Amino acid sequence: MKNELKNELTESFQNIIEKKISSALNVIKLELKRLQEEKEREREDRKEEITKLKEENERLKIVISQHDTITKEHNDLKATYEQMQETNKQQSEEISSLKIIITNVENHSLKQEERVEDFIHDKLNKTCVISGPNVPAMMENEKTDQVLFNFLKNKFNITLQKGSITEAYRLGRPPAAGPDTRAIKFKVKDDKTKEDIMKTCIQSRQQVFVNEFLSPFRMKILKKALYLKKHSNCISSCYTNNGILFVRKSRDNKFEEIRTMADLQFYKTQMTHPDDTTFLQSQEH
User: In 3D, which of 245, 247, 158 has the Cα closest to residue 194?
Assistant: First the structure.
């Protein structure tokens, strides 16, 4: 009886131990499986990280390459800019030198132009132009010098010696219709005859005007002075005498010589208020 009970207990104890061992083994298996799965996940994660690191490394390589390219371009641009600065500096120096040369040439040219104008004026010194609505109308086959001689005598009581007017002719084209009262260009033999004719015509105020015949250059200066007199306050009076233009700002100022357009431009900067002084067609007396 004892032996049977002992056998039963032994068998029951073995069953219990086997069950516990089996249960423990299952737990160990599950844990091993979990650990394997975690290890596999870690392996995959490491692979993914490695892939990302490789991608980042490639991206960094590209960035570094781009940076090197940009740096090279920057250095090239810097060198080009410095070269351009040096070139600009040289060009500025050359331009400054050229400006000095041009100024010297212009000054020399102006002096030469003045000499030429003085020479031309010597040829035109005794030449005048008479114009205005009361100039005698042209007659058929007229001798213009004789017409002018008679006109001065009858209209202004100017009696000239024979031969005082050395040449005379009408200026410009005749009108298509109406009386031909074109201006008359004429030349006298001496300065006194010219001054007497001009002075008498000015003082008569009979719509007859006598002016010196100017070269195109000096006529251009005179027209500019007349424009400034009309449209600005820098000139109140102007006249020509022996081919030279004289202007003044107001009655309180003295007349000043104007020989070049540059003289007139400088005078224009000296602005004053205009007065009612009238334009003198010849020298004021």
Answer: 158
